[in-house]
Amino acid sequence: MIDVLGAMYDLVEKFASTPAENILRAWPNRVALPPHSYAVMTLINTGRRGTNSTDFAFDPDTEEDGEETDSVLRETMVQIDFVGADAAANAGKFELLSRSARFCDFLEPYGIAPLFADTPREMTKPDGTDQFAVRYVITLTISYWDETSVAVPWFDDATLTTEVIQ
Length: 166
Description:
Alpha-Beta Plaits, single chain, two-stranded antiparallel sheet, 6-stranded mixed sheet
């Protein structure tokens, strides 16, 4: 299983100016936000793209079950909220790099391909202290293969009978 949030955390840590301890996953809870610059990642949608691909593997020299692996191409939207003085710069950087070889090369070891990011949206609003928190939001769309494997019994010989039906 692909660790999408782990990959996104590493991506934000590498390419944004947000301190690593201030990169958060959005949870429906009451965790206090860091006081200054931070980023919040939210998986907002995952869908199927295409038909399953099925592969079979077995060792004909043994009597052990074979293995069937079913794969599906997924497309996932990840919302990243950048908050702080450099929020606009971080969001703009992600929008630009999402269509570059730089993000492709960085995410390849995770088995993830970046497709694109939408235009950064300015979402500045007052925070809990009635001060304005500069906030820019982007949605990064990524793609990856998700797969599962199951044991499949197999056989060497089969007897086949045919009959003509008139």
